[in-house]
Design a protein that fits this description.
It is a single chain. The N and C termini lie far apart (about 70 Å). This protein has helices at about 1-20, 20-40, 45-65, 85-105, 110-135, 135-160, 160-200, 215-245, 350-355, 380-395, 410-425, 445-450, 460-470, 485-495, 505-510, 525-535, 555-570, 595-605; strands spanning about 270-275, 280-290, 300-310, 320-325, 360-365, 405-410, 435-440, 545-550, 575-580. It contains 18 helices and nine strands. The protein is of the alpha/beta class and about 625 residues long.
């Protein structure tokens, strides 16, 4: 950007000599307004960024072409000299960039980010070369600007979607500077012409004033201060970027499958003690085990097993199979990898589980921790991960688990819990279920996906759907439903976990989208068919509890009621409970009235008591 700034200054000064004053002022005002909006509201609109780039590129191109002409040939005859080729080349490049962004809207954000990154690096190197050839304050100014430019360029290429937002501010500032310079040049040109006219009218009335020698020195000091500030800003941005990258969760070798993997699902491949966020009086392991994907293809998944040290009556503890809520769709988003392995997936009742002498088996699902794709809201894949985790946990050395199993699941996990209850009798008859609790479940997928655009940050969850369905169901063409200009951002959103600091970038990008995410209704066509087939409509033989927060804005109570009503009409017994003033995550927090209800309901199921559904079969 330093090179770009230098070109702006030079072009604006030269343009001031050639462009009529009124046109210079007009262009300056336009640039100032566009740039100011970008600086003050950098996340307001990705479309605005494109508009600003187009406007800025056009103005830069025009000022390069016009400003590159000297006022005369130097021979006293007043004939204009031909434009210098560097100005012409730069002007044409800027104009070509503007045209490319206008006529090629699909990858425009990517193109802008990459071009800015490459341009910053090249400009920084050129600034450094010019700095070495310069002397005094100008040398240090150019060297400092060169360093800042290279740092920003490297960050742009390493993290391009963040660059889109950085460009909004940096480019905005540059456009404002260009605008102010054009306005000042236009005003000065007008005054100079007015002064020349007055001088001609009165004749040669005096000698011209001598130039102020302190002006260049003062400008040089100001430029050096600005260059130092640019280095500081670039360094701060680099520190933040490195910090965010280091904070992104990374998997270790534990999640790599061994060379030989059994073809049978539910087999334990690897286990090691796990201590992160495990309370006193309990022992935990992280496990690696075999399972199958949605289409029956063998796969490997990971999870966590927690047992209380003190067992009631020395009996094998019953199992709570936990299906966690949304954590992301990238490998590093496995709860067993994250800093908070339980709360990251909205599980706040570990102490209650252990206090009642129950064991916890919490799958990560396929594709979180292990190789993907992750079956986000793909029912069969999620359910098989849950059931096979219980099977594998039974093979742990030094641990004995009872056969009774109750499935709990929240949000995405609620969807997984319903599918687990439906497929268990056929897929895993050796894992008898005493009950299934689906909490704020994401089951009506067609309604949920179409509703996400109305939720703040909903495009983040939509990105997980697109990533999963595009990988698992190529025939759905999920990415093809996304607006071309948003595909790059959606892909980057899907690469971040909800609990990592970089998720703030995803939130900013989600809030900055000023156009619909979808170009085609995702509930129609091949994608709509795939979403519909993953709605859990299969019968659940085990007692079923469905819980909903009345203040939930992600899974709407009306959608939940419609789903429960449809299941009741189909003859499925359901114990449906709603909780006032509880939102999506608040429903399952430790202080929620659901917590003691869920524990009591589970105790009754494990005791073999008959359920009391709010709707009965028939």
């Amino acid at each position: 950007m330093s090179r770009l700034g230098a070109r702006m200054r030079a072009s604006a000064a030269a343009a001031g000599e050639r462009i009529p004053p009124w046109l210079s002022v007009t262009l300056g005002v336009v640039c100032t307004v566009v740039g100011a909006v970008l600086v003050l509201r950098p996340f307001a609109s990705l479309a605005l960024l494109v508009v600003a780039v187009v406007v800025g590129a056009v103005v830069l191109g025009v000022t390069e072409l016009v400003g590159g002409r000297s006022p005369d040939r130097g021979d006293g005859r007043g004939a204009p000299r031909a434009p210098r080729w560097p100005h012409v080349a730069r002007g044409l490049v800027f104009l070509a960039l503007a045209v490319a962004v206008v006529v090629w809207p699909a990858p425009s954000i990517v193109v802008v980010a990459v071009l800015v990154g490459v341009g910053l690096v090249v400009a920084g190197v050129l600034d450094g070369v010019e700095g070495v050839r310069s002397s005094g304050a100008d040398r240090w100014t150019r060297l400092a600007l060169g360093v800042a430019s290279v740092v920003l360029g490297v960050l742009a290429l390493v993290w391009p979607d963040v660059t889109v937002l950085v460009v909004a501010v940096v480019f905005g500032v540059r456009v404002v500077i260009l605008g102010v310079r054009l306005v000042v040049a236009g005003v000065r040109r007008a005054r100079a012409r007015s002064g020349s006219a007055r001088a001609l009218s009165v004749g040669a009335g005096g000698a011209p004033a001598a130039p102020d020698p302190s002006g260049p020195r003062r400008h040089g000091r100001v430029a050096l201060v600005g260059a130092v500030l640019a280095v500081v800003a670039a360094g701060a941005l680099a520190v933040v970027s490195v910090g965010l990258h280091r904070a992104a969760p990374q998997v270790d070798a534990f999640y790599d499958p061994p060379a030989s993997v059994p073809g049978e699902p539910g087999r334990l491949l690897r286990a090691e003690l796990f201590t992160r966020e495990i309370p006193d009086g309990a022992t935990a392991w992280r496990i690696l085990y075999t399972t199958t994907r949605d289409e029956g293809e063998p796969a490997v998944a990971s999870g966590i097993v927690v047992l209380p040290d003190a067992l009631r009556d020395d009996a094998a503890p019953p199992v709570i199979a936990w299906a966690h809520g949304t954590t992301g769709s990238a490998r590093g988003c496995a709860p067993s990898v994250l800093a908070e392995p339980f709360e990251s997936g909205a599980f706040f009742l570990l102490d209650d589980v252990l206090a009642h002498g129950w064991a916890l088996v919490a799958t990560d699902y396929v594709g979180l921790g292990t190789d993907g794709p992750h079956p986000y809201l793909v029912g069969q894949g999620e359910a098989r991960s849950v059931l096979d985790a219980v099977r594998a946990a039974r093979e742990l050395d030094g641990a004995t688990l009872g056969e009774q199993t109750v499935v709990w699941g929240h949000s995405q996990g609620g969807h997984a819990a319903l599918w687990t209850g439906a497929v268990a009798p056929e897929y895993a008859p050796d894992v008898p279920l005493a009950g299934v609790a689906a909490l704020a479940r994401g089951s009506d997928l067609t309604g949920l996906v179409s509703h996400l655009e109305n939720v703040a940050g909903g495009s983040i969850f939509a990105s997980f759907v697109v990533e999963a369905y595009d990988a698992i169901y190529p025939d759905s063409d999920a990415a093809g439903y996304v607006r071309p200009g948003a595909r790059f951002v959606v892909r980057e959103m899907a690469s971040r976990c909800l609990s990592e600091p970089g998720a703030l970038v995803s939130v900013a990008e989600a809030l900055s989208m000023d156009q619909p995410l979808w170009t085609t209704d995702p509930t129609t066509g091949p994608l709509g068919e795939r979403l519909a087939e993953n709605v859990p409509t299969g019968p659940v033989a085990a007692p079923l509890l469905v819980a909903q927060g009345a203040s939930d804005t992600l899974i709407l109570p009306t959608a939940q009621e419609a789903y429960v009503g449809a299941r009741c009409a189909a003859g499925q017994p359901v114990d449906y409970r709603t909780y006032q003033e509880r939102d999506h995550v608040g429903l399952v927090q430790a202080d929620s009235p659901l917590a003691p209800d869920l524990v009591r309901w589970t105790e009754a199921r494990l005791a073999g008591e008959a359920p009391t559904p709010t709707c009965a079969a028939g």
